[in-house]
Amino acid sequence: MSSINVSLPDGSRLSFDPGVDLTTVALAIGPGLAKAALAAEVDGQLVDLSHRLEADAGVRFLTWRDDEGQKVYRHSTAHVLAQAVQRVFPQAKVTIGPSLADGRFYYDFDVEQPFTPDDLARIEDEMRRVIAEDQAFSRSEVSRDEARRVFDELGEPYKIELLDAIAEDDTVSLYGNANGDSHWVDLCRGPHLPSTGRIGVVKLLTASGAYWRGDSNNKMLQRIYGISFPDKKQLAEWLRLREEAEKRDHRRLGRELDLVWFSDVAPACPFFFPKGALIYNKLTDLVRSLYRRFGYDEVITPQIMSVDLWKTSGHYDNYRENMYFVEVDGQEFAVKPMNCPAHAIMFASRHHSYRDLPVRYADFGRLHRYEASGVTAGLTRVRSFAQDDAHIFCRTDQIEDEVFSFIDMLMECYELFGFTDVRIDLSTRPAKAVGDEAVWADAEARLHQALQRRGVEYKVAEGEGAFYGPKIDFMVSDALARRHQLGTCQLDFNLPERFDLTYVNSADERERPVMVHRAVLGSIERFMGVLIEHCAGAFPAWLAPVQVKVVPIGERHVDYARRLTADLKSRGYRAEIDDTGERTSAKIGRAEAERVPYMLICGDREVDAEAVSVRERGMRDRGSMPYVDFVEELSAKAAFPPL
RNA sequence: GCCAACGUAGCUCAGCUGGUAGAGCAGCGCACUCGUAAUGCGCAGGUCGUCGGUUCGAAUCCGACCGUUGGCUCCA
Fold first, then answer.
1. Count of CB atoms within 10 A of residue A285's CB?
2. Residue lying closest to nucleotide B76, CA to C1'
3. Residue A102, CB, less than 7 Å from strand B?
4. What is the pLDDT of residue A244?
5. CATH number of the structural domain spanning residue A30
6. Could you tell me the CATH number of the domain that includes residue A108?
7. From the CA of A585, how many Å to the C1' of B44?
8. What is the Cα–Cα distance from A27 to A272, expressed in whole angstroms?
9. Is the C-beta of residue A519 closer than 7 Å to nucleic acid chain B?
10. Which window residues (188-247, chain A) lie with Cβ within 7 Å of strand B?
């Protein structure tokens, strides 16, 4: 009998008898690995440790250190959850239960009554029992008929529906976990842990409704979210990180830092207090300063326009349920949800030569969109907002340069906020699309060109473009590694058509321009929310609502502190004095809580020497320095615009 | 929109099985004049989200509405 070769990631090779299972292979490599292994990857395919090798193969064992290992771990925990639920609620029908990219897992059930917090506690206890029973996960590949019979007998209609959706040439696999007379089976691709006993600690987090297959026309199922770890300490750490994230929640910080307020009189519509408004305006001013350099012209357009306009643009037919309407003098008007139609008619109101293009209209107009009550959230999903919106009207041959320079501007802007990890997606022609295929292909090629010339990495999202044109989306990762979509750049072949936009070319013929919708920050409100959480409320000095807090130690230092405050203000900085009769440490504590970037402590030493004792936010005392030196430092770090 | 939970002072929360509300922080006042994350004492502050019902009596029980939060295809 000839042996087979197993090659490992480090390049080494081992030989075994054919039919050897992976647990044995792991043991041969070392008992440590055998203990840590959760599953394995054989020639790129994820498999159970019980998998047997019949031929030469490349094997990589997955442990907790691998993302795939954790995925298997959590997915197996989801199976334990489902088994526990069916023990406690025998009528519950099982559906699907994947592990999520953020480390959690869930399982959806069809049950008569939604789960209560009490139910979750009972289910969690039952899960611990299943884990204690150390049931082995065993895989069996069966025919579709066989599988259908199993789930028919078990009375699991959702599994049969899933079974029917599995591709013909795909193998159907069942996973049973059994221990003595306790047996539980699920339709699953796998792989799984060797046994339930490998799961350390579990915690169920929340229960909520979730539509079957995410479609609101389908029945609402009950979803349970959970998390699991090999070790208690890891769970504690996970919960701690989650609390940290809660502390920097922009809704909380927005309130604590006096930036934003919400009222029932306008649900999902932020009210910005002075400090919030200051940041808001600094953000738009920043974009304005970029516009000056990149050749954009700002326009101002009406808040409310006739429905005729929205009928022409197509929004009335396709976007009506998100719009607000008002009737005046028997005529119907709509509050604008977008700026583009206004810009289109402005463009159309003048004759344009090919020499005039591109025309770039920027607009910070306030937009109103009705969002379903269940989806609004803080500043990230609101009904009243503005965007750093602009529309470029250009010739086809100008697309590449326009997009290139837009990416330039965007990257420069993101870097300023410390958003250095930018993911870029190019979305191409979807199934239902306007404009002919050649035009799309040409436009997509120009987008590729622009991206490649700019030298950025990007992914292609096939068929994910808008119906009116291909687009490029920009996602950033924040300080907690969460992704947010901010910028976008979308070509539009639809509106120029609908508004019959033209320019005159060099041969004196009328031609259709391309319209480009683009935004760097996207919604200013949303961007503020993302930024607040990214910097945990500690805004860069050029953006901080209060840049300098002047802190006199005693009453006899107040005059001096006032003089400095006035001087800083006259130089254009946002400075405040804290002349409350508090103790110095209390004043510092408050200034730190407000996230003020610079604190200037003034006592006898400083008054005598025309100096200040500088404390930077989040750092210790830097000691005294001449006031003029501090002003110089400030001019370098807090100047606006910061570019 | 749908499922669930929640809504008590500006903020964070307490208030057991119904007997008309309490704390800390913030605010205001007084004292302390103080050297790098929060001095002490006092005062004031609430239609208990709104409306309706049950009850001798409702913050508490029931219903409706409003709002907020967590979810609503990262596939078997």
1. 12
2. A188
3. yes
4. 87
5. 3.10.20.30
6. 3.30.980.10
7. 27
8. 63
9. no
10. 188-189, 206-211, 213-216, 220, 222-223
What pTM value is reported for the model? 0.93
Per the structure block, which two tokens stand in for A295? 């050749």
Instruction: Quickly list H helices, A142-231.
Output: 144-154, 157-165
Per-residue pLDDT at A117: 84
Instruction: Assess contact for A392 and A501: CB atoms under 8 A.
Output: no
Based on the fold, state whether residues A80 and A227 are members of the same structural domain. Answer: yes
Q: Residue A178: pLDDT above 90?
A: no
* Block residue for tokens 């691998």: A66
- Do A132 and A279 share a structural domain? no
- Are A32 and A76 part of one and the same domain? no
Residue A162, both tokens: 């899933």
- What's at A97, amino acid-wise? G
The DSSP bridge partners found for residue A393 are A359, A515
Which of helix, strand or coil describes residue A8? coil
Residues 377-416 of A with CB under 7 A from strand B: 377-378
Task: Convert the pLDDT of each residue in A199-250 to its tens digit.
Answer: 999 999 999 999 999 999 999 999 999 999 999 999 999 988 888 888 999 9
The 8-class DSSP code of residue A604 comes to: H
**Residues of A that are catalytic:** 340, 369, 387, 389, 391, 471, 517
Length A578 CA → B34 C1' (Å): 14
Number of structural domains, chain A? 4
> What's the confidence (pLDDT) of residue A1?
60
Nearest to A137 by CA among A95, A87, A90, A79: A79
3-class DSSP string for A417-458: CCCCCEEEEEECCCCCCCCCHHHHHHHHHHHHHHHHHHCCCC
Which bases of strand B have any atom within 7 Å of the beta carbon of a protein residue?
1-5, 11-12, 31-39, 66-76
What is the tens place of the pLDDT at every residue in A442-495? 999 999 999 999 999 999 999 999 999 999 999 999 888 888 999 999 999 999
Which of residues A500, A534, A568 is at a domain's end?
A: A534
pLDDT of residue A286 exceeding 90: yes
Give the ipTM of the model, two decimals please.
0.93
Instruction: Tokens for A70, please give them.
Output: 């954790």
Chain segment A492-531, per-residue pLDDT in tens: 999 999 999 999 999 999 999 999 999 999 999 999 999 9
- Is A420 in the same domain as A562? no
- The Å distance, CA of A388 to C1' of B25, is 38
Distance A264 CA to B20 C1' (A): 27
Per-residue model confidence (pLDDT) at position A482: 86
